[in-house]
TrEMBL record:
Source species: Lepisosteus oculatus
Subcellular localization(s) per the UniProt record: Membrane
Keyword set, alphabetical order: Glycoprotein, Membrane, Signal-anchor, Transmembrane, Transmembrane helix
Annotated ranges, domain Strictosidine synthase conserved region: 203-289
Lineage, top ranks: Eukaryota, Metazoa, Chordata, Craniata, Vertebrata
Protein name listed in UniProt: Adipocyte plasma membrane-associated protein
A cellular-component GO term for this protein: membrane
Family that this chain belongs to: Belongs to the strictosidine synthase family.
Membrane-spanning parts: 37-60
Membrane topology label: Single-pass type II membrane protein
Main location: membrane
GO molecular function, one term: arylesterase activity
Length: 418
């Protein structure tokens, strides 16, 4: 074998790369088919989800008819409003033994509050006693939505001249309760319209020192308490501040056209009444005596949250509890939606009130304002680790007792520690 033959031999026996070109079109065809199946499945699932959603948006009626609102940019959370963890130093009391203690009053060291099942209770030491039942039992201890109209829902509570309790019940009206005997006297019934309009959401109250006048809020003529999220999102302006005369037993309208009037507090001299206008994140002042009687102006505006109850502080100012905050920096859903009524409509077409509540941040905030509405100090609990859904801050004996419109406990904060 010569050299040329050897080269030819090696060339002929060189390993060959074998490719099955005939299978390639089949592989491409299979891949294309799988992709089509995937895309078709994805589109089908999207249609199954989106079509009912679009039908709901187009055909279902929204339960609310929102008004277009306008807010200023929330105040910066700095200075007096600098975030802190002071509310986390509070202790929970009677956890699981009372639900929704919205408001608190005290006679000496005995505390009184209302609960979600329509009861007025007193807290003496480590014991809870039922003083009175305002509604018609049987009532679910948890205060179910269906039971509220018949069982009642006590909200604001105050102590009167003779040591009796005055109570605002969201569904039933105004009551005077004897804390010793448990006797209940109906002062104002929601069955009787006031100035041609029904009382749908009696909320908070305050009483003059002589016991003659009771100032109270009716948050809406349209929405009851259990639909308070509708009231807030709709921006309804049918709330009123009312006055009840305990001698003549007559009710008169002091202010009308308010958007979710809530907490009520008389000034130390009883010449004006402060009213929290929750939806608008502000507090109004209504003059009830003196030269300015009948006049009204804004006491505090553009608050860092949506105010609930207002109570006096020992420094001469006012404790204001925020039902929800307007963080800045941060995102406030209510501020964002204020001028977008069509979005609000869609939200309530597809989401229930209970689901919507889950999107409300559990940021707890209590602010102390001076007599001139300047911020003095603030207590925070970001994420609501200890204190949640605060509705009122009631000061007694160096402590703040924190009520809640839905939590199953009271909180107590030692002011000497913060």
């Amino acid at each position: 074998m010569n050299e040329t033959d050897g080269l030819r031999y090696r060339r002929l026996n060189r390993p060959q790369v074998i490719t099955d070109e005939s299978q390639e079109p089949e592989h491409k065809s299979t891949s294309t088919y799988s992709g089509r199946v995937f895309r078709l499945t994805l589109l089908t699932l999207a249609a199954l989800l989106l079509v009912p959603l679009l039908v709901a948006i187009l055909l279902l009626e929204s339960p609310i008819q929102p008004q277009r609102l306008s807010f200023s940019e929330p105040p910066l959370m700095s200075g007096c409003l600098e975030p802190n963890f002071k509310l986390r130093q509070a202790e929970r009391l009677f956890e699981g033994q009372l639900i929704g203690p919205e408001s608190i009053a005290n006679i000496g060291d005995v505390l009184y509050t209302g609960t979600a099942d329509g009861k007025i209770v007193k807290i003496e030491g480590n014991t809870i006693h039922v003083v009175a039942t305002l509604g018609r039992p049987p009532c679910d201890f948890t205060g179910s939505r269906d039971d509220e109209p018949t069982c009642g829902r006590p909200l604001g509570i105050r102590v009167g001249l003779n040591g009796t309790l005055f109570v605002a019940d969201a569904y039933l009206g105004l009551f005077e309760v004897n804390p010793v005997t448990g006797a209940v006297d109906t002062l104002v019934s929601t069955r009787n319209p006031v100035a041609g309009r029904r009382l749908s959401f009696v909320n908070d109250l305050d009483v003059t020192r002589d016991g003659r006048k009771i100032f109270f809020t009716d948050s809406s003529s349209k929405w009851p308490r259990r639909d308070y999220s509708y009231l807030i999102m709709e921006g309804t302006d049918d709330g009123r501040l009312l006055e009840y005369d305990t001698v003549t037993r007559e009710v008169s309208v002091l202010l009308d056209g308010l958007r979710f009037p809530n907490g009520v507090q008389l000034s130390p001299n009883e010449d004006f009444v402060l009213v929290a206008e929750t939806t608008m994140a502000r507090i109004r002042r209504c003059h009830v005596s003196g030269l300015q009687k009948g006049g009204m102006e804004t006491f505090a505006e553009n608050l860092p949250g949506f105010p609930d109850n207002i109570r006096r502080s020992s420094s001469g100012g006012y404790w204001v509890s925020m039902s929800a905050v307007r963080p800045n920096p941060g995102f406030s859903m209510l501020d964002f939606l204020a001028d977008k009524p069509w979005v609000k409509k869609m939200i309530f077409k597809i989401l229930s009130q209970e689901v919507l509540m889950k999107f409300v941040p559990k940021y707890s905030l209590v602010v102390e304002l001076s007599e001139s509405a300047a911020c003095k100090r603030s207590f925070h609990d970001p994420h609501g680790v200890v204190a949640t859904y605060i509705s009122e801050a009631h000061e007694h004996d160096g402590h703040l007792y924190l009520g809640s419109f839905r939590s199953p406990f009271l909180c107590r904060l030692d002011l000497s520690q913060v």
